[in-house]
Design brief:
172 residues, alpha+beta, Glutaredoxin, four-stranded antiparallel sheet
Length: 172
């Protein structure tokens, strides 16, 4: 049976239910299959040997998600080639590509969880009521161990960008 967590997150003060486990620092990151585009899927193994910052957003077409993705795109240049920044949402790959083109996003890799919501469920970020993924940040070392995690308690708030970037830099 799939675990549900209620009372841990809200959308503008209204409770939402998160599906899946609450991952913690020290856990091995679950593998995933996400859509890079309509025809190409990727897994965690495709980024093997890299430090990974996984930025999860409900939808790129909202203000906070837009700002979050732009912020990590600008930070990516300073982090170097050892780091891969992945932005995961349930937006269709077409929408992700359109948004990235319009926003000038060229350093962050956008991946879509639209087909099965399996990423959201494995990482404990699937919002039961909306079938969107809850805003969160995961930093994985080169061996896919979770070294930093932030589950936001309010969907409309920004994550702690400085702490996430510091967690990445501590692995360089």
């Amino acid at each position: 049976m799939t675990q549900e967590r209620t009372g841990v997150a809200t959308l503008k003060g209204n409770p939402i239910t998160l599906v899946g486990p609450e991952l913690k620092v020290g856990d091995q990151a679950p593998d995933f299959v996400l859509s890079k585009n309509l025809l190409e899927e990727v897994t965690l193994k495709d980024y093997s040997g890299k430090i990974k910052l996984i930025s999860v957003v409900p939808s790129l077409d909202t203000g906070v998600c837009d700002a979050q993705t732009r912020r990590f795109n600008s930070e990516a240049a300073e982090l170097g080639d050892e780091v891969t920044i992945l932005t995961v949402s349930v937006d269709l790959p077409f929408a992700q590509e359109r948004w990235c083109g319009a926003a000038g996003i060229d350093r962050v890799i956008t991946l879509s969880d639209y087909k099965t919501n399996a990423f959201g469920e494995a990482y404990g970020v699937l919002i039961k009521e909306f079938k969107l993924d809850m805003r969160s940040i995961f930093v994985l070392d080169k061996d896919d161990n979770i070294t930093y995690v932030e589950y936001l308690s309010e969907m409309a708030e920004h994550p702690n960008y400085e702490a996430a970037i510091a967690a990445v830099k501590s692995l360089l």
